[in-house]
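Re: the request from the purification team.
They wanted to know what the chain is likely to look like in 3D before they choose a buffer screen. I agreed to run a prediction and write the result into the notebook, where they can find it.
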Amino acid sequence: MRAPDDYIEIFLQPGEFFFGDEATRIRTVLGSCVAITIWHPAKRWGGMVHYLVPSRGQRAIDTLDARYGDEAMLMLLKEVVAIDTDPNEYQIKVFGGGNMFPHLNHEAAMQIGRRNIEQAKDMLRTLGLDVAAEHTGGAGHRTVILDNWSGDVWMKYSRVPDDRTQGDTK
């Protein structure tokens, strides 16, 4: 499907989300963060979250923050309900959670990319939402683009070299 002549392009920074109509393209760049895209095929509305960490633990009672996976998804779902649609009508895709420093040994608790992926999958499963596609993990970063007029999601993956194989030559 061809892009509208007057579409807007939104670039999400870490900790942001956006939900818009068919005249919208949403893009972001991910490392260990995770992006979840949602798109409604009939209405051609869609959105994306770009979260940094799974959860903040203790949450302020009335303030949601898109830096945290659990809260970012709630913010997006509020938008879904606001246009009188059901979350189960959306195509959902998950991206990111890359290991940006594969040459470093990390304790399990510090592997934020892996924890972000687990948060996304657990959260979507708990909400009863099916994932249509995913590209997660690995050692690298991703550029993700969602075109709301078509529902196409474009993803470019770039591997991060493992510095252990990059030695000095003398």
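For the purification team: The domain at 8-162 is CATH 3.30.1330.200 (60s Ribosomal Protein L30; Chain: A;).
Please add any questions underneath this entry.
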